[in-house]
Specification:
- By secondary structure, this protein is an alpha/beta fold.
- The chain folds into two domains: about 15-125 and about 320-345, 2-Layer Sandwich (ornithine cyclodeaminase, domain 1), CATH 3.30.1780; about 140-315, Rossmann fold (3-Layer(aba) Sandwich), CATH 3.40.50.720.
- Helix content is about 35%, strand content about 25%.
- The chain has helices at about 5-10, 20-30, 35-45, 120-140, 155-165, 180-190, 200-205, 245, 255-260, 265-275, 295-300, 320-335; strands at about 15-20, 55-60, 65-75, 80-90, 100-105, 115-120, 145-150, 170-175, 195, 210-215, 230-235, 250-255, 275-280, 285-290, 290, 310-315, 340-345.
- It has an eight-stranded parallel β-sheet with strand order 9-8-7-10-11-16-12-15. A seven-stranded mixed β-sheet has the order 2-3-4-5-6-1-17. The chain has a two-stranded parallel ribbon with strand order 13-14.
- A hairpin with a 5-residue loop joins strand 2 and strand 3.
- The relative contact order is 0.18.
Length: about 350
């Protein structure tokens, strides 16, 4: 018997893990309401229910000199515990890969062992779009008739599809992507609506009541005068809006203030570090953020509604929302008998 066999002989083993593929996640989503899960978890978070620890962030440049990173996002939502590991490289699309991919982990609340491993890229896009959908409703833009999507990759496609389904008055969608083929491909996926592929991002945004930015840009370019009067600008990606666009907004909302303050890599976090923005209700010379989505849902923060010149929603991405979705998908998968069980020993 080897030394490691001897050392391991008294241990009970690592147990079983259920693996869920993207296709199995897709099947589960037909019976799960992600917007409802996200809305409930945002409100719980504002009430202090659940846990949102700090993220782990690893960045490097790959052989092409492209920004490449891994983010670990743990969280707890009521009785659900888990973690999202999402990796990305901006050079992936040129190789025919999605920019981001990863896994979601569900933990047993008693033993802390991993019970489920879930393909996370699809749910990451679903979660992000669901946060935007909650924001559209909570901030008073549910009656919008026009939508712009800037960036027509996985996130842009998910936002366009979900918002087109949830906005009953929507009549027109304008699209822009640096790859016209990507914009045209998304346009073909949206039958029954007037869809226009625009030659510039400004053209796409200029007449839209809701404009969603889902690009990989890390430097602001969208200026205040791009926005239609009273528009909602949803800055999903890293840095599409200029500093002036944040400063000139009638109201600015986020998903979690601590995430913003602790992340100076992103423009709004940098503006907080520079003292341009402060926490909601804070005294002093800094302009206060107007609130969080969870705070609006619970009534702790006020929704300004449609306001001129425009309103900004800048969600950073909360791991606790992913964990809540993982739990819902895992439960649905068990009910449907989906997944591959792996015995770890």
């Amino acid at each position: 018997m080897s030394w490691f066999d001897l050392a391991d002989s008294g241990l009970s083993g690592a147990g079983e893990v259920t693996l869920l593929s993207r296709e199995e996640v897709r099947k589960c989503l037909t019976n799960v309401a992600p917007v409802d899960v996200v809305r409930e978890t945002l409100a719980d978070h504002d009430r202090g229910i659940g846990l949102l620890p700090a993220e782990a962030y690893l960045r490097w440049e790959n052989s092409r000199g492209a920004y490449t990173r891994s983010i670990g996002m743990p969280g707890a939502a009521r009785s659900a515990y888990g973690m999202k590991i999402i990796n990305a490289s901006v050079s992936n699309p040129a190789s025919g890969l999605e920019r981001a991919g990863g896994i979601g982990l569900c933990f047993d609340a008693e033993t802390a062992r991993i019970t489920t491993i879930i393909e996370a890229a699809l749910l990451s896009a679903v979660r992000t779009a669901a946060v935007s959908a909650v924001g559209v409703d909570a901030l008073g833009y549910g009656g919008a008739v026009s939508l712009a999507v800037v960036g027509c990759g996985a996130q842009g496609r998910m936002h366009a599809a979900l918002l087109a389904e949830r906005l009953p008055s929507l009549r027109k969608i304008t699209l822009y992507d640096r790859s016209p083929e990507a914009a045209r491909a998304l346009a073909a996926m949206l039958p029954g609506l007037a869809v226009q592929v625009c030659s510039t991002a400004r053209e796409a945004v200029s007449e839209a009541e809701i404009a969603v930015f889902t690009t990989t840009m890390d430097e602001g370019y969208a200026e205040p005068d791009w926005a239609a009067p009273g528009a909602l600008l949803i800055n999903v990606s890293l840095g599409d809006l200029t500093d002036a666009t944040f400063r000139d907004a009638a109201a600015v909302y986020v998903d979690d203030v601590d995430l913003v303050a602790d992340n100076p890599r992103r423009p709004l976090g940098r503006l907080m570090a520079e003292g341009v923005f402060g926490r909601p209700g804070a005294a002093g010379s800094a302009r206060s953020l107007d609130g969080t989505l969870g705070g609006v849902l619970t009534g702790r923060h006020r929704a300004h509604g449609v306001a001129s010149p425009y309103v900004v929603l800048n969600p950073f991405g909360m791991g606790v929302l992913d964990v809540a979705l993982y739990a819902a998908i895992s439960t649905q998968a068990r009910a449907e008998g989906l997944g591959t069980v792996v015995h770890l020993g």
